[in-house]
C-alpha cells in the first residue's frame, strides 16, 4: 500500500499536470496515462524530505517535487521511443508510445518538460535574484547538452565507441546523476548552502547517480521483467553501457558497494556540519540499502 506521502504526491502530480479543459483529447489521455503509473517517486520524495528538513513552505516543495518528477517521466518517455531503446513496457504497463503512438508520446514529454520549467519558475519567483539565477544554472547544466542530453547521446552512440567503462560512467553522469542533482539542489538553493556544503552535495549526487546506475545495470542482467516492470537484457541486445555486461557482475557489485560507502560518508559529513542535512542519510537508507543488499547478494 502506498505511503501517505506517496498518495499526496500522486494527487499533486495530477493537480499540476499540463492539462486544461482545452487540451486536445488524445494528448490529455496520454498525459493521464503516463501519470497513472508513477513508479517509486524516489526523487520527488527526496525533494519532499528536503522541504521538511529546511522548513520550506509546503506549496513550494510540492511544486518542486512535481517538477523533478515531470522531468524524470519526460526522460523515460523519450528513452523508450523506437529511435532510442524501443522499449515495449514501462512500470508494468505498455510504454507510452505503444499505447498512444510515437507522435503523442513526444508531445507528452514536451508538455511535461514545459510544465516542470513553469513550476520551478513559480517556486523561485518570490526568492532573491541570485537564487533564481542559480536555479536556472542547475536546470541548464542538468537538462542540457552537459547533462541529460549529453548522457543520452553517449548512450545512443556507445556501440560505436571503444565501449570503455569510463564512457559508461559518462553516460550515467549525464543521465542518472543529473536527475539526482535536480532533486538535491533545487530545494537546497532555497536555503543557500555554503560552498563547503555545495561541494559535498555535488559529490553525493555523483555517488548516488553512479550507484543507482550500477543497481539498474545489475537488475537488467539478473532480474526478470515482471520484477522491475520493464524489459531486461536490453543493454546487451542494444550494445548499451552496462557495467555488469562490460566487466561482469562481480565488478558491478564491487563498484556499487564502494559508491554507497562514499555516499554514506558524504551524507554523514553534511549531517555532522548541520543537522538540516540528516534527511540525506535517511534517504540513502530508505532507497538504496534494501535494493543494494539484494543486488550484492545475487550471484
Can you describe this structure in just a few lines?
Helices cover 74% and strands 1% of the residues. The protein is mainly α.
Reconstruct the topology from this structure.
Elements lengths: L3 H12 L9 H11 L6 H13 L3 H23 L8 E2 L2 E2 L1 H5 L1 H23 L4 H15 L4 H9 L8 H24 L6 H28 L2 H4 L5 H5 L4 H5 L1 H25 L4 H20 L2
Antiparallel strand pairs: 1-2
Helix pairs in contact: 2-6, 3-4, 3-9, 3-15, 4-6, 4-9, 7-9, 8-9, 9-10, 10-14, 10-15, 14-15
Question: How would you describe this structure to a colleague?
Answer:
This protein is mostly helical. It has one domain: Farnesyl Diphosphate Synthase (Orthogonal Bundle). Strands 1-2 form a two-stranded antiparallel sheet.
Properties at a glance:
15 helices, two-stranded antiparallel sheet, globular, Farnesyl Diphosphate Synthase, mainly alpha, 299 residues
Give the helix proportion (percent range).
Answer: over 70%
Query: In which order are the strands of the major sheet placed?
Result: 1-2
Strand content: under 5%
CATH architecture: Orthogonal Bundle
The residue ranges in which pLDDT falls below 50 over 5 or more consecutive positions are none
- Protein structure class: mainly alpha
Q: Please identify the top-level CATH class.
A: Mainly Alpha
Question: How widely separated are the two ends?
Answer: 30 Å
